[in-house]
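dude i think i finally got it to work??
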Amino acid sequence: AGVTIQGASCDLAKPWARVRMIDLVSNAVGVSVHPSQPVDELRSIAQKNGVNTETRWGSGRIIEEIFAEKAEASLIEPTFVTGHPVEISPLARADRNDPHLTERFELFVGTHELANGFSELNDPIEQRKRLAQEALSKEAGNLEAGMVDEDYLRALEYGLPPTGGLGIGIDRLVMLLSG
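look at this
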């Protein structure tokens, strides 16, 4: 079950690493980071590490940018990056042990994201709050942010059982395996 990834042999049969995004960032910058930290503190950490941020970004988005700039390149062997900040995961259920993180993962191999998955947020009240934050972010210039979806919220009010989803980039998987 071995493949060559960026010139190195990789055994795909062994258990794949699972690491929280905040732990990867903390290791990369040498100080602890968490979405509960004040945004100015995280912005300062980013700046000290040569990572540019935008004024409209919250703590979770800044952590994601530090991750992309300072930690992602180290993810050669298959690694599940878990515990994404709520701010960057508007549709994911909050982590049961840390309300600032989510039950979300991304699979990285060869420094590239191959898959994204999460437990769906099925609380219509919390979902409305998050979508309202997304709408405010969109108004502030974030082109990737979503809007309040009343039809979706109405459906959630009727009830959604525990649900999860997974998206796999087949094109990325084929590129990885074919070199």
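Residues 124-139 form the longest helix (16 residues).
im so relieved honestly
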